[in-house]
Amino acid sequence: MLKYSLSALARNARTYHQDWARMWRAPTPKKEYDVVIVGGGAHGLATAYYLAKNHGINNVAILEKGWIGGGNTGRNTTIIRSNYLYDESAAIYELAVRLYEGLSQDFNYNIMFSQRHVINVALSVHEMQEQHRRAAAIRGNGIDSEILTVAQLKKYLPHLNMNGRFPIFSGLIQKRGGTARHDAVAWGYARGADNMGVDIIQNCEVTGFEITNGIVQAVQTSRGKIKAKKVGVVVAGHCSVLADMAGFRLPIESFPLQAFVSEPIKPIFNHVLMCGGGAHGYMSQSDKGELVIGAGTDIYPSYSQRGGFDIIEETVASLQELFPFISRLRMLRQWGGIVDVTYDRSPIISKTPVKNMFFNCGWGTGGFKATPGSGHCFAASIAANQLNDVAAPFSLNRFYSGALIDEGAASAVAH
To answer: DSSP string spanning 153-183?
Structure first.
């Protein structure tokens, strides 16, 4: 694999950058693999990368029905944080943040990780009290978290309207939180996995599984049957569809989650804002100057990737009360991503009723920020044929035992 460097950049400039090597191959599928990963989003790519890097398992195929990173990976708002309430959630999201902090060096590829601080704003006495509770729990897990006074909030967010319809009570900041370029994360994992021998097979839709005596034998695809000793399924919003193909059900519903971006403006917003209560929404400014705004989910299950305009109207109306300058901006584009949510709003990393088949799903609105931690834990679990300590609390067994991890308030918006 070609190392990116200043000298390589200068050398390729002489040929107008026409001679760069492909970042990953386009191989013909083999007849059999040790592990087949279904889903070529960031979580699936990360799983394959860590299978090869950490466990020496490189006879791996990633099957993606479209193109790499073309699903939820390219449809999120790129926010990264680990300030979750419960110990189990804190462990996996903090693992993800720690891995994010070194990914560009690991990949030799810039993922544009910017630790620009994530700030939650409390708009009621109840939210303020909850912030203090949450901050104490987060610090108890060794994760950075600070309460901000109204005066401190004004310094961090000088454009915040302190005299609007929503009263401002306090803030909660994680300074190690921030954003990363979602495409770059996917491409970095794909480039790294390919370099270690993983086959990335695009335009290869999974149509079924060959299961004998309760043991998965092969994956049926639009490009023929592919045998596999183990199968890991990481397909975000469509996980329940794949589970149905395998003959079991998951405690999951899928909803469109909406986002949109404004026209570019000069740098004005240096942090990531998240707010709940009466003003659901979250916002950051991209390197191109666009305001990236995240909204809530539609109220009905759907596999649509568009969403409804009522959600946009509600979100913009709320955010412009907090930041009046938004009313003067034009919105460039709007889209929806399909989020899969469980009853307790925590993910599933688990063995399944089918032997040698593993599922990683149910991340809801937290998928992108968890990418390295998710892939790291899922790869370790597949390699060892049992869930590791970080992944174990998220198994399907919790829905039988009642040991749920209720993170329904973990996001800035209800989900």
So the answer is: HHHH-TT--TTSSSPP-EEEEETT-EE--HH
Q: Who's near 412: CB < 8 A, 6+ residues apart?
A: 120, 274, 275, 276, 280, 281, 282, 294
CA–CA distance, 123 with 232 (Å, rounded to integer): 42
Any residues with CB less than 8 A from the CB of 337 and at least 6 apart, and which?
A: 71, 72, 75, 76, 237, 256, 257, 259, 305
d(CA 406, CA 415): 12
Average pLDDT, the chain: 93
**Structure tokens belonging to residue 410:** 């973990």
Dihedral sign for Cα atoms in the order 31, 32, 33, 39: positive
DSSP state of 365: G
Secondary structure element (H or E) that encloses residue 256, with its range: strand 252-262
Largest separation between any pair of C-alpha atoms in the chain = 66
pLDDT(286) > 80: yes
Is pLDDT at 152 greater than 70 in this prediction? yes
Which structure tokens are listed for 214? 């309760």
Q: Residues 41-55: pLDDT tens digits?
A: 999 999 999 999 999
**Dihedral sign, Cα of residue 364, residue 366, residue 371, residue 376:** negative
- Alpha helices for 26-156 (secondary structure H): 42-55, 87-107, 125-140, 150-156
Q: Model pTM?
A: 0.95
Using a 10 angstrom Cβ sphere, with 0-12 exposed, 13-18 middle and 19 or more buried, the burial of residue 398 is: buried
In the numeric block, the tokens 């006879």 are attached to 59
Q: What angle do CA 390, 258, 277 make, to 5 degrees?
A: 75
